[in-house]
Task: inverse folding
């Protein structure tokens, strides 16, 4: 088990990527200090710890930095193997499949979701929404195959892929609300819609998944900043 003060996480509450290591640390029962970055700025500690990307999250384990959310989740799984459930599947094939879908989520699906708010005009917005829905259909199919009828991608407990996708549920709900669309639609993606409810209710997630209301307020604030005219 980690010594007091040995594990620190540089992050911010609205960030889906930061939520990933927070959930992993909760699953493993590892206590950590949360070093919250201020919105719109980057601390010296962050710049020193992640000089390549300058992004959150960064895990500091005994002052050694580890960057990139999914790399951090895998590090946590390996560093505390006997505390809590295994996060990555132990079978090499299952592990490869989990990594494949996690890469799909980060490289394809999430960029299309964040593209909805940026799309200019009704046609572009509809195309962006259709792209996200198409991705969710693929993920619905993957959920059926990977979970094999169990509650999570990871089986009976939250695993790697649950964390990779589940961290975006809050922002999905904000997108549904602000754009007036249903994305996690019970009629179209019933498995994922039920999975999302189970994921958010899990003890490792509950305390770190922001309320939709609070996240929507934050979204308004950042959109306002994007729309604001440049300072003279
Ligand atoms: N691929 C990175 C993405 C991290 C990321 O985009 N973090 C955002 C916060 S949600 C950030 O630090 N943005 C600041 C910036 O882009 O300068 C990961 O998985 O950790």
Result:
């Amino acid at each position: 088990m980690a010594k007091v003060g040995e594990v620190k996480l540089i992050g911010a509450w609205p960030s889906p990527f930061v939520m990933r290591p927070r959930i992993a640390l909760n699953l493993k029962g590892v206590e950590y200090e949360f070093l919250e970055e201020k919105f719109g700025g980057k601390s010296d500690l962050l710049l020193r710890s992640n000089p390549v990307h300058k992004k959150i999250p960064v895990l500091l384990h005994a002052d050694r930095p580890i960057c990139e959310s999914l790399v951090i989740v895998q590090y946590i799984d390996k560093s505390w193997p006997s505390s809590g459930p295994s996060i990555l599947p132990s079978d090499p094939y299952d592990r490869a499949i989990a990594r494949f879908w996690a890469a799909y989520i980060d490289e394809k699906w999430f960029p299309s979701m964040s593209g909805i708010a940026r799309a200019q005009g009704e046609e572009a917005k509809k195309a962006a929404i259709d792209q996200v829905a198409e991705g969710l259909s693929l993920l619905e199919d993957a959920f059926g195959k990977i979970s094999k009828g169990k509650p999570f991608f990871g089986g009976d407990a939250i695993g790697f892929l649950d964390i990779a996708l589940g961290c975006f549920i809050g922002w999905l709900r904000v997108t549904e609300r602000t754009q007036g669309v249903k994305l996690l639609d019970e009629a179209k993606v019933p498995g994922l819609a039920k999975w999302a409810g189970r994921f958010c209710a899990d003890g490792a997630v509950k305390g770190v998944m922001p309320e939709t209301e609070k996240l929507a307020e934050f979204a308004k604030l950042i959109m306002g900043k994007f729309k604001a005219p440049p300072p003279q």
Notes: The longest strand covers residues 7-11.
